[in-house]
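Structure tokens please, single chain.
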Amino acid sequence: MKKTYISTSIAYINAEPHIGFLFELLAADVLARYHKFGGDEVFFLTGTDEHGVKVFEAAKAAGQSPQEWADKTAGKFEALGKQFDIDFDYFIRTTDQSHKKFVQEKWQQLSKAGLLAKKKYTGLYCTGCEALKRGEEIVEGKCAVHEVRLEEVEEENYFLKIRNSKLEIRNWIKGAVYPETRRQEVLNVLESGSYDEVSVSRPKAKYGWGVEVPGDPGHIMYVWVDALFNYLSGIELSGRKIDEVWPADIQIIGKDILKFHAIIWPALLLATGYELPKKLLVHGFINVEGKKLSKSTGHIVYPRELLERYSVAGEFAADACRYLLCRQLNFYEDSNFSWEDFDRLYSGELSNGIGNLLSRTVGLAKKVNYKPSVNVSAEKLLDKTLGKLDFHLLLETSAKLARDCDQAITSSQLWVDTEQKLAELKEVVDKLLVIAGLLEPVMPKTAKETRRQLQNLSAQPIFPRRAE
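Here you go.
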């Protein structure tokens, strides 16, 4: 049996989750389900990144210790699994003592290999990114991502030497990073010459909340070093063996953390003797009314708002939200979120589309007591869409099939002399079962309910109209 390892980035817990992280989780879940359908043994990892300045400040503002804040907030991210049928195998938290021990062991390995050097440096730092900024990352003295003025810092830190790994990293990027625009973007950063070494620690007196550097309690590990190793430690914490699961087949991240995953992460892996991930999928930003979704600016849409808005769908509300996110938002490029667009899609493709088509088809099948086989395969169409990592094409294909079925019912007037038109009805039913197969990675409950209703000839509304 083929093993497939899929991961998301781990979410930063300075605030509760927004739909950006949910979208990333959902993409990983859809791919995990697709690979399971193909017979793979899937390991799906997600979790929370719980150290760093922003977490410390958020806890302080709430009158809590950083650990109290982490325990409370991490639970909200983990709860997305149950709320939206995200079927991850392990949820890692970087405050887990076993994870901290793991990263300290990796630090010692780097040190023994002579890859760490302690020195002073001066640079421009963004607290929002928790990173030094260089070149195109700076626009008019501000961080290009967070649009806040950068702080000039002078510190003594440990640096990881990566000069000798750059050729191998470059070759890996060319074959592993998707889409091509992000591949070229990070190659430009790597080849700019500013990544011969990277800072991998911070003074504990200034930054405080993190994993201590072994043998030097005055320093803590740079939060990204701590965080990136979760993709390995999470395997061990789940009770599996790293060499039986690693390398990752698909790692999903946002474009704002590309350089960490496409430069620092492979550098750490090469330095500690691990293979590099096979694919790094990079999604774009979600904009709301033209502005980037951002916890720091408060420009947010929360997952709970989605569930509340489409609660009319009852037990299928999570499926509706999953569909709308995958259908409306572009995975690889920036997308604009709009309640108006989501409502239009819900009405057009769920309520009047899939929901109405299922009701019509079951009614016609019941009229002639036709109970179909449910073993109609959508495997080839799934392979043509999700096999090519194309979420949008998957749902465009299913939506077109649904429109074709509705048109066939109407143009042939299948409700008139239905018994004489049984062949045409069977064709519609088979297409509806193909739709169920296509939608199953995105809408697991809806796919199951579609098959149940066709087998039992019992029509139940699944996406009722919303009150305007």
